[in-house]
Amino acid sequence: MTNRRFTSLENPTNKETYKIIKEGLRKRAMIIIFSCCRVHYYGRAKSRLGLGERLIIIKPDGSFLIHQDRKVEPVNWQPPGSKAKVKIEDGKILVESRRRKPAEKLTVEIERVHTLSYYLVRDIHELEVAGHEEDMCQLILESPNIIEKGFRPIAREYQTSNGFIDILGKDENGSLMVLELKSRRAGVSAVRQLKRYLEDFKNDKHGVRGVLVAPSITHDAKELLEAEGLEFKSLEPPQELKKDNKITLDDFISSR
Amino acid sequence: MTNRRFTSLENPTNKETYKIIKEGLRKRAMIIIFSCCRVHYYGRAKSRLGLGERLIIIKPDGSFLIHQDRKVEPVNWQPPGSKAKVKIEDGKILVESRRRKPAEKLTVEIERVHTLSYYLVRDIHELEVAGHEEDMCQLILESPNIIEKGFRPIAREYQTSNGFIDILGKDENGSLMVLELKSRRAGVSAVRQLKRYLEDFKNDKHGVRGVLVAPSITHDAKELLEAEGLEFKSLEPPQELKKDNKITLDDFISSR
DNA sequence: ATATCAATGTCGGAG
DNA sequence: CTCCGACGTTGATAT
Q1: B225 to chain A, minimum CA–CA distance in Å?
Q2: Which H or E run includes B119?
């Protein structure tokens, strides 16, 4: 069946398959193929996938996905900007996708097509999402007292020799506080990260407090944290979708 | 059209859509819907996606994907093990997917279906892939001399207070060598990682060498590496697909 | 283009 | 089940 917005075929011949894929690529359509195929990849790694039925998706932006009947991740893929081509070789349909840098090539050897279609997609909306580390950061800058009474932020993304501190501030006694934020349960790696940031402040005369801020913490992480004399503050990332005007650090005096 | 392996419809009515999705879910088929829809998610985060045309995939293992016409990643999804349901509410098709722990819910409000199909998928093959850190490790254990003449591995995944060392060994003079492997271009974070592992060996009498093993290294990482007196050894991850019997460390004497 | 960091990361393996 | 680290991570942002 064919209309203005999409074209769809069942059990097409090789000739039809070739024609429709070619047409879909030329129109920069979203192409969907359900077929029995083999897949080969060579580039950053190398992979091979034997014969089986999979869903193939070629998007207008060059993204190329091959999905098996399990898992969220595609079994093979190419990123946006890749160039797809279709060929017939020895009476078999080959679909290839290449990327230049790094050089990568994905080849799908199609044995038999079950359904084939392409769509001229109308979709202008972007996802609006809340509940990230960034949202926690905003929340703390808006309401520093949720960390503790008297906490004052000084800097955000403060650079150290071991990376960027999420939030640097002072407690009510004037001691420096280094906050490391995680939007989900924090593990030992988060504690190690915090520990590294503190190395730059080892000689600070007023003393420095390291605080891991996350909704929860693993047992091992808690142990390491306490062994290192660091602190944990439980905080859930806020999940409000309305796009609020962001608070900048201009509101705070960067006085360190 | 309907046959034993798949069912496919174009521009179905709500009633047909409901029936086919229900049937596909019951048969644990892979369901593919191209439709104009809205999407809501609530769980580890919260998100909203306005009206637009997207590809919806429901897999037999419970994975649920919504793909826009761009990017490799789905715009919304649910992991394997989630439970999908279809409803009609106020004359509109709703498809929901829930997960228990953590509690997550994805809701798709379908405005209009363009194509709808489900497949009973036959696919037994797993991906065979080569070119990982693991393959480099195997290669080095098989042929230690590629690191340097006289290099002898002692332990793999050797535990320190700062995490696991990829390979620990000795050079021909008996000095300890700590190898940190990366299957791609190494950055400063890799150097910092190596640096941390060495802390446990600061007092070793024979001296310890830290070696970063990777196909290449970033400029900043090279500088930091040299400033710390560490070394770089260029090594490409092998990309051989044949499943070779793995070498275990039983072949080496753990004598440290 | 390169480097760095977060993610509803996902996934696999070990305890 | 939880915890931990790798990934052809991807995607976004700053340099």
Answers
A1: 13
A2: strand B104-119
